[in-house]
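=== RUN LOG ===
request id: a7f3
mode: sequence -> structure
chains: 1
length: 81
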Amino acid sequence: MSSPGQYAWIDQQTGRRRPATIQDARDAIRLGDALENITIVGAMAQPESISQAHRDVALTAELVKGMVREIDRIVELAMRE
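=== RESULT ===
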């Protein structure tokens, strides 16, 4: 199953539902990248602060910036060729 990301998150301090933020997306990307059994990381959040017209591009940029393990693997494969 796949999801484009969540529009609302549960705030850890208040226990209340709130709109997702860009920091939520960054934290989720870092977490997914660090988990050994996760091979593909998605944005996992749809920040309300980014317009829908630009959200996909902005989240793709965050994925590239935050996925150290995957970028290392891509570079390693490129170096073999």
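=== NOTES ===
The mean pLDDT is 84.
The chain has one domain: 8-80.
=== END ===
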